[in-house]
Design goal:
By secondary structure, the protein is of the alpha/beta class. The chain folds into 2 domains: 87 residues, Ubiquitin-like (UB roll) (Roll), CATH 3.10.20.310; 76 residues, Ubiquitin-like (UB roll). The chain contains 5 helices and 7 strands. The strands form 2 sheets. The protein has a 4-stranded mixed sheet with strand order 2-1-4-3. A 3-stranded mixed sheet has the order 5-7-6, with helices on one face. It is elongated. The N and C termini lie far apart (86 Å).
């Protein structure tokens, strides 16, 4: 009884609706994050990783900010725990909006490649560091060999070294570099103190 054009039109309408829902995520500046999922080589449990993205769930944010904030939070958490080469790839997926919701609702998929967890092999100083006793430099940094390499500790070390030199009347900047030994899962930090 139905015409052939009507039967063909139904799948086209369904595809168009799905496409529009997908486009709503792309074109809508503000989205409501409903779910966060993790896949890949996580390095940590999904529950632990979820703690770092919890602050975003249930909030309306611009797509770009949501993706950046979630990726940064998870990457920083992993680097803090020694996964210094961790990579986080985000992707938003549209969901059916709840009744009465004016924003596009999304799920965030974070694909993680944590990689190796590194430990500190050694810590060396170059440049103007010869003007200060090595004991004082190491005390300012507090990065012991054998410990899990913490990206945040290196940042604190740079700040503390700058303060140490400032107390001696010198304005300096510190350039960090890392040498990875993948075979032993260790990293050596070199801190170059420059004027």
């Amino acid at each position: 009884m139905y015409s052939r054009g009507f039967v063909i039109a139904i799948p086209v309408v369904i595809l168009s609706a799905a496409f529009c829902l997908s486009q709503n995520v792309e074109s809508n500046q503000t989205v409501l994050l409903k779910e966060v999922h993790f896949s890949g080589d996580l390095g940590l449990s999904a529950d632990k990783l979820r703690e770092y993205t919890e602050f975003l769930t249930g909030h309306r944010l611009e797509r770009k900010k949501l993706v950046e904030d979630a990726s940064d939070a998870v990457a920083q958490a992993l680097r803090h725990l020694g996964y210094l080469k961790a990579q986080v790839t985000p992707q938003l997926r549209s969901l059916q909006p709840s009744a009465g919701s004016k924003d596009a609702e999304v799920a965030l998929e974070l694909t993680i490649k944590a990689g190796k967890q590194y430990r500190v092999k050694d810590l060396t100083f170059t440049g103007l560091s010869t003007q200060v006793a090595e004991r004082d430099l190491k005390q300012a940094c507090k990065i012991p060999s054998g410990e899990i390499a913490d990206g945040e500790q290196v940042g604190s070390c740079i700040t503390d070294l700058t303060t140490l030199f400032k107390k001696q009347g010198q304005d300096v900047f510190v350039v960090p570099s890392m040498r990875f030994d993948d075979a032993s899962s260790t990293v050596s930090f070199e801190l170059d103190v420059e004027k």
